[in-house]
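hey m, so remember when u said the C-alpha cells were messed up on ur end? i reran from scratch. heres the input so u can diff it against urs
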Amino acid sequence: VQLQASGGGLVQAGGSLSISCVVTGLSSSDYGVGWFRQAPGKEREFVASASWSGATIYYADSVKGRFTISRDNAKNTLYLQMNSLKSDDTAVYYCARDSPPVNWGQGTQVTVSS
C-alpha cells in the first residue's frame, strides 16, 4: 500500500490551499482515511478523518469550520481543502489509511506566511 500526497506550498494567511493523496495497492475502498500534520518541534497531530463512505467525518477543533476533508473512491484519492489559513497551520501534512493509521504517506509541506 502506498499513499502519495501532493499539493502543498506557500500561501498567505487568510488564503486557501487544497492538498490531495492518492492511495494505491488496495483492491477496495473499504477503509478509513485521515490527515495529520506535524509542525517543527511538535508532535504529529490529528487533523481530520473520513470513513470509507465519507459519511462519518471528524475534525480537530483547531481546523473545524475552516478545513474540509473529502474522498473520491473512484479515483482512490483523498482531499483536504484548507481555507482561512493561519500561521499555526504551517506543518508537514500527512495522509493516512485507517485509524489508528496503518499506512502513511510521505507528507507535503504547507507553509502559511503572516
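this time it looks ok to me. The CA atoms of residues 19 and 75 lie 15 Å apart. if urs says something different then somethings off w ur setup not the seq
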